[in-house]
Amino acid sequence: METKALKRLFWIAGSVLFLIGLGGWYDRLANGHVHANYGSVVTWGLWVAAYIYFIGLSAGSFLISSLVYVFNVKRFERIGRLAVFTAVITLLLALLSIWADLGHMGRAWEVMIYANFKSPMAWMIWLYSAYFLLLVAELWFLLRWDFVVGSSERSLCGRLFRLLKLGSNDVSENSRSRDRRIVKILATIGVPVAIMFHGGVGALFGVVAARPHWHSGMFPILFLLSALVSGGALLTVLAAVFQDGWTRNREIVVSLGQLVLGLLLLDVLFQVSEMLVAFRGGIPGEVEGLKLVLGGPYWAVFWVGQLALGTLVPILLLVFRTRSDPRWVSLAGLLIAAGFMGMRLNIVVPGLAVEELRGLAESISSARISAHYLPGITEWLVTLGIVGLGMLLFGLGEVFLPQGSEGEETHVRIR
Amino acid sequence: MEDKDLPRTSVPDQPQGLSRRNLVSRLVTIGAAALATAMSAGGAVEALAGESEEGAHDLTGAMPSSRRFRYGMVVDTRRCVGCKACVVACKAENKTPPGVSYTLVLNNAFGERLDDKPLFMTKPCFHCEQPPCVDVCPVGATFKRERDGIVVVDYDRCIGCRYCVTGCPYGARYFDFDENYPAVEDQTAYAAVPSPEYKQFRVRKKGQSPAGNVRKCTFCVHLQDEQGRYDKNAGRWPSCAKTCTGHAIHFGDLSDPNSEVAKLLRERQAVRLKEELGTQPNVFYLL
Asked: With contacts defined as CB-CB under 8 Å, which chain B residues touch A210?
C-alpha cells in the first residue's frame, strides 16, 4: 500500500513539474536567452550545472548496471534493466538541458560534422553520442525477448511491443542466450566509453587554465566518482519506488546503500584533499572560487545542501541501524542524489564568478557583465520541467516496458 | 560540404578549416593521436598529425610563412586618463549591443598600489599567439587568421555554447543575448544601419546571428584593405586607437621594426597580462 501512495505522489509531482516546465520552454523558444540570467562573466549557469548533473547520473547508473552485465554481480541483477533504463533517461535529460543552453539550438548538429578534436567538448559530444546508441541497443537486447513474448497480447502493451520488437520473432532459449551475450559485449564496450565520456566532461572543465577553480587534474576523476555516487544513490531511490518497490527490492536497496556509502566517503576524501591543498597553497586565484563556495552569497548551497543534507545526514543514515531499512536507505539515496546538484552548481558557478581581471565587472554597467548570478525564472522552470519529464518517462517506462522476471532469468542461467 | 560551406561565411582567411577537409580522412589521419591532443593539449602530437605548427615560434616574431602581419597594440597607461572614449568608439564602430563590449577600461587592475596613482587600462582582445579560446571551440568557429593573427568568430558556424568565454583568461569574449539599445529596439533609422563587422554588413534581426553568438574584438578587421593593411592617415585604423584622447593606444604590425608599436617595445619596458598562462598576448602595456 505504501508503495502505491508513493507512486501516486511520484506521478503527480512529475506531471506538475513537467507542466510548469512548458512555461519555461515557451519563454526560451520565443525569447531566446533574454530572460536567462547568466552573462559573459558567469557565462554558464543552472542549465550547464543540470547538464553535468544528469550526465553524471547517467554515467553512474550505467557503470552500476555494468556490475551486473559485465562483472556478473548477481546481487544487483534485478535492477540491471532499471539501471540501464535510468542511464538512457538521464542522458536524454542531460542533452535537453545543454540544448536549451546553446545560443543557436538549430546548430547543435554542427558539432557532429565540423567537430574540432582539439576541443574536449567535441570529444565529449562524439563520445556521448556513441554511448547513447550503445545504451539504446543494450536496452533493446535486454528487453527483446519480453517484447516478442508480450507482443501476442491484445492490450495496449502488446501493440506497443509489436512495434518495439522490430520484427524479431525468436523466442527460443538460444535467442535469449544470444541476447545475453550481446548485452555483455555492449556493456563491456560501454564501460570504457562511459569512463571516457564522463571523464571527458570533467576534462572539459579541467583543461580551462583560465579558471583556476576548474584547472585541476583531479577533475576528471572527481567527475567519475561523483557520477558513481549520485547514480548509485538515485538507483536506491528508483529501486525502492519501481518494480514493486522496497518490499521486493529490500536486499538490493540495502546493499546498494552500502556501496554508495563507500563511494561517497571516497568522494569526500577527494574533495577535501582538493580544498586543503588549495587553501594551504593560498594562491589567490585558486582560493577565490573555493571562498565563494564556502562563504559567498550562496554559502548555503554548500553548507546546507551539499554538506549537511547531501553528505552528513545520508552518511549517518547509512552507518547507523537505519542502514538495513530500505526506506531509510532510499531516503539517504534521495538526499545524496539531490545534494549532488549543489555540488554541480558549486563547480560551474564559482569557477566563473571570479573576475578574470580585477575590476572587469565594475568597468561597465551591465547585468551581463557581472560576477553575480542567480538563475532566472525561465532557467528554473526549464530545469524543473526537465526533471518532471524524467519522472514521467520513468513512470511510463514502468507501465509500458516489460518488468522482466529477473528471478526466472537467473534460474535459467543457473540451469 | 565544401561548396555549401564556404559561401556561408564571408569571414576572410578561413581557419585550419575542418570544413574544407574531408572529415573521414581527417579522422583517419589523426586517429588516436588527436585523443592524446585533446587530453594533453600537447603540441608534439600536432606535428604527428601533420597540423601546421602555427605558434611554435617564439616571442621575437619568427612567424610561419603564411603569416604576413602580427598586429598588436601597445597601450601606454601613463597617457590614459580613463575617459572611456575607446569603449564608446568601439560601440559606435561595431554597433555592439548591450552587454557586448569589445573593449573595456579597467581601473586599478593590479589592486592598490603604493604610489597611489590611478591606473587605467583599456582592454581589447589580446589576439594571443596561443589563443586558448580557439582550441576549445567544439566546431572550429573561432580561429586565428593565418595572414595576420587576428582571432575572429565565424558567426554562421558558432553554436553559442560559450566554452570560449570560459576559456579566455582575459574576459575578452561576450555572448550576444539578442538584447538591444532603445534606438534599435524602437526601430529608429539607426536600427537599419548594418554593422560593418567582418565586412558582412549584417542588419540586426531578432534571433539571427550574431545574436546567440559569442562576439569579440576584431582589431576592426573590416578596415583592412585587400592586402590586409591598415592606414592610419586614411582613418582605416582600429576605432579605439583612432579615438584615444590621450594617444595612449598605439596599434600596428609588431613584426615591422619600423612600426610605432615595435619602436615603443624597443624603447620602453612593456608587460603583458598573465604571462604565466603561455598565451602570448599581442597587446602590451607600458606602466
From this structure: 132, 166-169, 277
Name the DSSP letter for residue B190.
G
Structural domains in chain A, CATH included, are: 14-403 (1.20.1630.10)
Angle between helices A46-69 and A80-101 (to 10 degrees): 160
φ, ψ of residue A328 in degrees (nearest 5): -65, -40
Amino acid B11: pLDDT = 54
- Cβ–Cβ under 8 Å, residues A415 and A86: no
Whether residue B48 lies inside any domain: the answer is no
B108 CB neighbours in chain A (<8 A) are 358-359
Tell me the pLDDT band of B115, cut-offs 50, 70 and 90.
confident
Hey, what's the cell of B68?
A: 604576413
Task: Mark residue A275 as left, alpha or beta (left: phi above 0; alpha: psi -120 to 50; beta: remaining).
Answer: alpha
How far CA A327 is from CA of A40, A74, A172, A246, B10, in Å, comes to: 44, 22, 39, 7, 62
How many other CB atoms are found less than 10 A from the CB of residue B237?
Answer: 19
Which residue matches cell numbers 530572460? A35
Question: What chain B residue is nearest to A201 in terms of C-alpha separation?
Answer: B39
pLDDT at A138 over 50: yes
Is residue B34 included in any domain, yes or no? no
Residue B37, pLDDT > 50, answer no
Confidence of residue B13 (pLDDT cuts 50, 70, 90): low
Cα(B87)–Cα(B68) distance, integer angstroms: 29
Q: What is the mean pLDDT of residues A279-292?
A: 92
Q: What are the helix and strand counts (H, E) for chain B?
A: 9, 10
Tally of structural domains, chain B: 1
Q: How many CB atoms within 10 Å of residue A408?
A: 9
For residue B55, the one-letter residue type is G
- Band the pLDDT of A247: cuts 50, 70, 90: confident
Tell me the C-alpha distance between B68 and B211, whole Å.
32
Q: pLDDT at residue B5 above 70?
A: no
pLDDT grade for B7, boundaries at 50, 70 and 90: very low
Structure-block grid coordinates of residue A165: 520488437
pLDDT at A171 over 60: yes
Rounded Cα distance, B64 and B148, in Å = 11
Do A122 and B139 lie within an 8 Å CB cutoff?
yes
The interface predicted TM-score (ipTM) is 0.92
Q: What are phi and psi of B120, to 5 degrees?
A: -105, 140
Q: Assess if residue B5 is contained within a domain.
A: no
Residue ranges making up the domain that contains B97: 57-286
Cβ separation A40–B171 shorter than 8 A: yes
How many Å from the N-terminal Cα to the C-terminal Cα in chain B?
Answer: 50
Residue B23 is inside which H or E element, if any? helix B23-40
Q: Which of A186, A246, A235, A238 is nearest to A60 (CA)?
A: A235
In a domain, B25, yes or no: no
B118 close to B269: Cβ distance less than 8 angstroms: no
Using CB atoms, which residue from B39, B104, B141 is nearest to A360? B104
State how far residue A209 is from chain B, nearest Cα, in angstroms: 7
Option in A108, A357, A360 nearest B159 (CB)? A108
Supply the CATH number for residue B210's domain: 3.30.70.20
